[in-house]
């Protein structure tokens, strides 16, 4: 059975239960016409002032035959919780997964044990799945290194591969084979040579051509913060609970900022784009990005799926010129 997920969760548990995880965000944004999912949600009553990711997920579920959805009820946002309530009323089975309030291994073990029970998996099978996914996660870390260190992989390619690690496209074996092929081809390329190195922090941008626009202006994206977090890039920890406790996204922004500052220094990043979704509470966190990070930060937001608008283009141009 396909199980929909709305954010990164311990996906090893879904595989261990014999089901196939399906990241609904990826279906939404990779559709030829993602706007129509948003329109469908608005037709169903979702307010215009709701984040487009939430509406997109709801629109996807109106079309896809997915009856069970794991909703992150702690560590994501209140919109997700309300989405789960509407879906439950629509007849879907909702399984809540809550990240602990603070990053604590013992509490993470309890949260994962509950998910194991809810999905009918076993701890042994979860450990087996973790052993299968760990090498794939390490390959993604190598792909990330080929992006920032060897300059062989573009920011858009980096994002696409890393975001897919939320569900491994439902088929880790095939994902691993395709990743091997991608890396084999990438190492044969000539290194890219951009003068300005950028990072993008925040949820994956809903803007369809952001990376192309940045490259045309002479800069390269060598760090995708949240997609990198999805891949759990810190090497295999001894337990799954330890692995997910290091995931920064569900916790206080200060912890994310420490990670971002470390990576920006390591990757010699000239400037950071902090992307936030229109109507998302994370726009408030932008204050702390500006206060705490020691590199230039450009705050960008977008509402609907689609290309870069004129005002945003001017702001990106000015930012890159300033960095140059
Ligand atoms: S972008 Fe913000 S509001 Fe939208 S689902 Fe993510 S956390 Fe919630």
Quote the average pLDDT: 97
End-to-end distance, in Å? Answer: 51 Å
CATH class of the domain at 2-123: Alpha Beta
Order of helices and strands: EHEHHHEHEHHHHEHEHHHEHEH
Gyration radius over CA? 19 Å
Helix content: 40-55%
Largest sheet: 4 strands, parallel
- Uncertain spans: none
DSSP strand tally: 8
Q: Write down the overall geometry.
A: globular
Structural class: alpha/beta
Brief summary of the model shown:
This protein is an alpha/beta fold and 324 residues long. It is 52% helix and 14% strand. The strands form 2 sheets. A 4-stranded parallel beta sheet has the order 2-1-3-4. Strands 6-5-7-8 form a 4-stranded parallel beta sheet, with helices on both faces.
Report what the structure shows.
It is built from 15 helices and 8 strands. Helix 14 links the parallel strand 7 (271-277) and strand 8 (297-302). The chain has a domain at 2-123: Rossmann fold, CATH 3.40.50.11890. It is of the alpha/beta class and 324 residues long. The chain has helices at 11-16, 24-30, 35-43, 52-63, 78-89, 105-119, 123-148, 155-163, 172-186, 210-216, 225-230, 240-245, 253-266, 282-292, 310-323, and strands at residues 2-5, 20-23, 68-74, 93-98, 196-201, 219-224, 271-277, 297-302. 52% of the residues lie in helices and 14% in strands. The strands form 2 sheets. The chain has a 4-stranded parallel β-sheet. The protein has a 4-stranded parallel β-sheet with strand order 6-5-7-8, with helices on both faces. It binds iron/sulfur cluster (SF4).
Output the keywords.
single chain; 324 residues; Rossmann fold; 4-stranded parallel sheet; 15 helices; 14% strand
